[in-house]
Amino acid sequence: MNTGKIYFFGVIAIVVLVLVYTFVFTGKKDSYTDQITKFRVEKDESFKNLPDSPIQNREVFQRLAYFPPDPAYRIVADFEPIRDTARLKVGRTDGTTEYMQRFGFAVFQLSGKAHKLLLLKSSEDDGLFLPFNDKTNGFDTYGGGRYLDEHNKALEYDKETGKVTIDFNFAYNPFCTYNPDYSCPIPPTQNFLDIPVRAGEKDFQDK
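The structure corresponding to this sequence follows.
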C-alpha cells in the first residue's frame, strides 16, 4: 500500500515540469478561464505520459472530467487563527492515521450559506491543505471528498489582509481515486460543506 502524501504536493512531483509556466506571465496574459483550461490540459497530459502517473491504464487514458470553470467558486474568505496548538488526528483510506497541524479557519459565504473550513498543514514547512466534502460526493464527484492546496494557487493565505483565497475550480481528487494502491487523507468531519460544489474535478471513470 502506498502511504505517501497524496495531496497536491504529491501530484507536483509528477506535473511540476509541465505546469510551471501556467501561471507565469509570458507576453500574453491569459484569461481566468484560459488559465484553468490550460492547467487541466497539462495535468491530463502528465497523467497520461509520465511514468509516475497514478493512472493504472495509461494506454487508454484520455482525460479527467471537470466541471466548467466558474468564477463564482473563487472565494475570498476571512481567516480565523487557531490558538490551540494541538494537532489533528486525520484518518487515511487504508485505516492508518496521521497528525496534521491545524492552521486556522476560512470563513466565507457560498450559495447563500455561511461556511467555516479547517485549514491544515502536514508539517510547519508544508503549504496549506484543505480536504473537503460536499453534496456532490458519490454522485458527480469522488465519494471520499476532494482536496485543495497552496501549490496550484487554489489556496492562498495573505497574512497582511487576513484573507484566504479559495478557488474550488482547482479542487482535485486524491490518488486513491485512480488507484486503490494509494492511501489518502480523509477530510475531517468539520470540513463538510452542506451544499453541492459544482467546480473542479469530477469523479474518475477508468475507461
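The chain has a mean pLDDT of 87.
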